[in-house]
Amino acid sequence: MVDDEPNISELLGTALRFVGYDVRTAGDAGQALAVAESFRPDLVVLDVMLPDLDGFQVCHRLRGLLPQIRVVFLTARNQAADAVTGLTDAGGDEYIRKPFDLDELIARVALVLRRGAVARPRRLHVADLVLDQDTYDVNRDDRPLSLSPTEFRLLNYLMLNTGRVVSKEQIRDQVWQYDFAGEVGVVENYISYLRRKLGDPPLIRTVRGVGYQLRSPRPGAV
Question: Which GO terms describe its biological process (predicted)?
């Protein structure tokens, strides 16, 4: 979410997180490109009028960085020519004018993501660990593992983010999907359950003060 008006970024970021998206915000083009490079988002809601570069230029640079990224322009400009520029020359996927309806914007974000969705693998692999999203089977070293529904969702989320460090708050919000409003201690408990069931060598690394990372074990790890 890129906008130089903090109140808009905060409003939209909160609303998109509430419906299940993982969101980062930026207030100018420089921040947007830096965040995109590290976060690698599927979609950017991008204000056209930024203090350093205009959104059309940012869109071109984002396409160079992440060719499959989707861009929804958000702007106070009301000229038809601007919409044409955003959707054709700059390569945007949607163009929404301010003031906007929040529910409509969220619906358009979902529509653009569906329109540009790339099929995700239904079987996830990390080292000798295999998770099948269709059958709910989990195997490690050809040994079937019995997981509870919550443990399965937790492992699925970690495997979808293999190599990335995800915070306890991200895990809580994505795995429990806002149905649980308690402390992040529940995440620590379920990580512990999952580690015991996955066995050795360990696949889940604790990054102190940040969160957890699922990765292939290092040679010789126990």
Answer: regulation of DNA-templated transcription
* CA torsion through residues 142, 145, 149, 154, sign: negative
Displacement of CA 23 from its chain's centroid (Å): 7
| Contact of 132 with 123, CB cutoff 8 Å | yes
Q: 């974000």: which residue's tokens?
A: 109
In the chain, count of helices (H) and strands (E)? 8, 10
> What 3-state class would DSSP assign to 15?
helix
* The last residue of a domain, from among 77, 97, 114: 114
pTM recorded for the entire structure: 0.51
Q: Dihedral of CA 9/12/17/18: which sign?
A: positive
Q: In this structure, is residue 219 part of a structural domain?
A: no
Domain end point (choices 97, 114, 131): 114
pLDDT of 210 above 80 = yes
